[in-house]
Design goal:
homodimer; alpha/beta; Dihydrofolate Reductase, subunit A; eight-stranded mixed β-sheet; two-stranded antiparallel sheet; globular
Amino acid sequence: MTAEGNKILGTVLLDMSVSLDGFVAGPGDDVERLHRWVFTGAGTENMRFSDELHEVLAEVDAGAVLAGRRTFDLASGWGGDPAMKVPHVILSHDVPDEVASGKWTSFVFESGIEAAVARARKLAGGRAVYVLGGAGLAQQCLNAGLLDELQMHVVPVLLGKGIRLFDHLDARTELRLISAATGTETVRMRYQVVK
Amino acid sequence: MTAEGNKILGTVLLDMSVSLDGFVAGPGDDVERLHRWVFTGAGTENMRFSDELHEVLAEVDAGAVLAGRRTFDLASGWGGDPAMKVPHVILSHDVPDEVASGKWTSFVFESGIEAAVARARKLAGGRAVYVLGGAGLAQQCLNAGLLDELQMHVVPVLLGKGIRLFDHLDARTELRLISAATGTETVRMRYQVVK
């Protein structure tokens, strides 16, 4: 599969790692097992993004990122310098000092889901909006009919407990399988949301 | 993929259809959407098993089937004549009249999960034990460490409500991806349970 042939243009795409039993984090927000495929190299010093992640990002070709406030906080705001060099829209009522003061310039805060998606679409300029979670944001997007595509990286583990990706959904939603591929250990499934 | 090259010998394999959000049935035990890929032809008269199902069954090469009592009841005991012509072990304390009287000869009833799996393995004679659910039985098997493999047919729908396949699991379980393939609309993922 070439990246060029599969560019996802102007779409709002949820992209998340899940266990086979549907969790996006284990107890205590633990994502180490689920995000293992994202990194390569041993130790904090030599850790870098895996070829598999680079392939995914090239294929998506995001023009903006959308994330929830818990995701932002759990990542400590990526130290003000997120890996994807595009505008990040964060769904939250409360703008942190680093952003309000103009110290961190990569972030835009929006307090409603409709406004957040609209802002991200505008900032993406025809390229994809990459929705990186968490589960609460994903559910809000789904329930509001704002997602165009879902991409799951299914990690070969049953966590048993944690935070479920698909929970509190209002309605049954038909999907259309776009593609399925295997990574190092993951199965990557991409679906279109049928509206 | 040839069926011959992938025979699953002597294994205890759970094989179930699930929605992308992890349900094996919608509200009211509705499985119509999830089992659609299993059938072909229109109307009750012309309905028959799909080529995809035949391919799956040939690959598994089951020597016995294991099912829970609710599954047995919901299928009305397959009218005494299940489609897979191998012994069916049903987990239940209560033997129905048709079986007790010797009228229905395809079924063996066992009242404990360990005994049920042991009986099915023995009856399978070195071929696979095909565990066809439901969710409660699958969870008991997983929690007792009695499953060797999981095969999921992921159907492109979010049901939102219903019976979850993976629920009430006692421990985290590592899996190893054996294969992934796409069917007519499903993604079929086969995993080994790492013990």
